[in-house]
Amino acid sequence: MKVENLLKTSALSGVKEVKGHRNRASSKSGAPKGIRDEVELTGSADKLRELETTLAEVDVSNPGKVESIRQAIAEGSFQVNDEAVAEGLVKETLDQLSHRLKR
Asked: At a CB cut-off of 8 Å and minimum separation 6, what does 15 contact?
């Protein structure tokens, strides 16, 4: 979840500048003949692309753990550790806030 959010929010972090240019020449109707857009990327964009490729190849699942949880849910014996969930949510929120403050 964190990685997906990071990639989504960072997708444009490597874009240095976006420029729109219009040709000054006009057609008979007075409208511009064409519009040209340029995008200049920094080295960060290349690194981000490499990171996305690497992360896409990583297997983050643990089949044994997933199956044991699935079985516990089916048997009705699965118990959620409320405190651990709350601590994880607080930690993730603090991480996201501190990351935003660094920008």
From this structure: 39, 40, 41, 42, 45
Instruction: Give the number of other CB atoms < 10 A from CB of residue 48.
Output: 19
The domain containing residue 76 runs over which residues?
A: 62-103
The answer on 47 and 15 residing in a single domain is yes
- Tell me, yes or no, if the pTM score tops 0.70: no
Q: Per the structure block, which two tokens stand in for 96? A: 């996201």
Same domain, 68 and 54: no
* Phi-psi label, residue 95: left if phi above 0, alpha if psi -120 to 50, beta otherwise: alpha
Angle of CA points 12, 14, 16, to nearest 5°? 100
Torsion angles phi and psi, residue 77, rounded to 5: -105, 0
**pLDDT in the model for residue 43:** 81
What pairing do the DSSP bridges indicate for beta strands 35-41 and 15-22? antiparallel
